[in-house]
Amino acid sequence: MRNLPEKVDISFFHDLPLNIRQRVLQEGKIVYTKDDYYVYTLVKETDFEMSKYSKMQEEYHKEVMKRVQKRLSERYVDIERLREKIDELESYLQELDMLLPEYERAYLDLRTKRACEKTVALACETVIDICNSYISKRIWQTS
């Protein structure tokens, strides 16, 4: 062993991690073997284990991505719902614009007044819904 160069690493092949075994078989050089069939068998076994490992790793990554996407959807404001609420708010504002009379005296009509008040109340509730959604997600993020 004293005659070995400094950059030699001796390991038992079966004790190596699977990815290292594959690399050894792909990049390494066979210095000496008594049984070529045994080396061929090692190559086949390693390839088979690597294919099983790759499938398992792919499934693992898919599951991790599902969990990440679920957490992200829980963590952040639902953009589609936010857009719906903003559209709802805009419709109330347009409705209010149509209901508001040009003159102040026309506003004194009870029906017009109540219709305007109700539309403003609905618009305020929509703004509160938007704010509550945002605040609840922000609180969740900090906890």
Write up this protein:
With 143 residues, the chain is mainly α. The chain folds into 2 domains: 13-67, no CATH class; 77-142. It contains 5 helices and no strands. It has helices at residues 18-27, 36-75, 79-99, 104-107, 110-142. The model has no long low-confidence stretch (mean pLDDT 82).
What labels would you give this structure?
single chain, 143 residues, mainly alpha, 2 domains, rod-shaped
Write the layout of secondary structure elements.
Elements: H1 18-27, H2 36-75, H3 79-99, H4 104-107, H5 110-142
Helix pairs in contact: 1-2, 3-5
Based on CA atoms alone, the radius of gyration comes out at 35 Å
How many structural domains can be distinguished in the coordinates?
2
Mean pLDDT: 82
Number of strands: 0
Helix residue percentage: over 70%
Structural class: mainly alpha
The unreliable regions are none
Strand content bin: under 5%
Largest sheet: none
The shape, in one word, is: rod-shaped
* N- to C-terminal distance: 59 Å
Which H/E pattern describes the elements? HHHHH
